[in-house]
Amino acid sequence: MSAKKTPYSEYFGHNDVIVEVLSLFCGFLFTSITLLLTFLQDNRGTLAQVTILFLTLIFYFSLFVLLDNLEMAFHYIEEIPPLTLKVRPFFNLLLIFYLFGTSTILMFLLFDLKILALISGLVWAAVVLASINFTVKRFYKQSIRRYWPKPDS
Questions:
Q1: Position with higher pLDDT, 68 vs 1
Q2: DSSP string over 113-146
Q3: Which of 2, 42, 131, 136 counts the highest number of beta carbons within 10 A?
Q4: Residue 77: helix, strand or coil by DSSP?
Q5: Is the Cβ–Cβ distance between 99 and 93 less than 8 Å?
Q6: Does residue 122 lie within any of the structural domains?
Q7: Residue 68: inside a domain, yes or no?
Q8: The domain containing residue 62 runs over which residues?
């Protein structure tokens, strides 16, 4: 962004802080889940699984909000660089986020926590559907409204 102040400069600054904090928080939650799975003596106990599920739910919600904040800035930028105008980089970013959320489910399966994997898988599927319904549709409509090129086939 240029050095001159625009009416949205404060918004972008604030949104940047939100994205940085959520990224750090998601990394912390993912690390916490991994450490709890590997270092708990009894990760099959009810309290341990409820704790891990709670952290996983916060992790999923944080990923949803992070992705939404990353996409939100596109609505306020007048001149977007040519590479960013392509829709494909945003969809690649979506794929990375969706795979990052799926990794917790795979970790639960790795530690033979099938019920926890099933519950978190259903919740993650709901988060992905909500993300597609709110964030992806909004981005795609914006790309059509602003005549951005469609992804290459």
A1: 68
A2: -HHHHHHHHHHHHHHHHHHIIIIIHHHHHHHHHT
A3: 131
A4: coil
A5: no
A6: yes
A7: yes
A8: 9-145
